[in-house]
Design goal:
Blueprint (H helix, E strand, L loop, with lengths): L4 H12 L5 E6 L3 H19 L6 H17 L3 E6 L1
Parallel strand pairs: 1-2
């Protein structure tokens, strides 16, 4: 997601503009956490690039908050095991 800029942009567009749901399935030791972190970082970078946040810290906090909100709304679902 981070290495392929176009992929990252598509993920952000799907989540932020098209209200996509995200399903994360796999090893729960680190993968689930790492994928959530990667998505929140993509969201934060997008917010910062679009001038919707004044600092990287604010953008990161909003990215994390969006992930939490998605979980609450059932838009981000984890199916992980260890």
């Amino acid at each position: 997601m981070h290495k392929d800029v176009q992929c990252g942009k598509r993920i952000v567009e799907m989540i932020m503009e098209k209200q996509a749901s995200v399903y994360i399935c796999g090893d729960g030791n680190a993968m689930g956490r790492d994928v959530q972190e990667a998505i929140s970082n993509l969201l934060a970078n997008d917010l910062l690039a679009k001038g919707k946040c004044l600092s990287l810290d604010e953008a990161r906090a909003r990215g994390i908050a969006h992930i939490i909100q998605m979980k609450t709304l059932g838009k981000l679902v984890l199916d992980i095991w260890s």
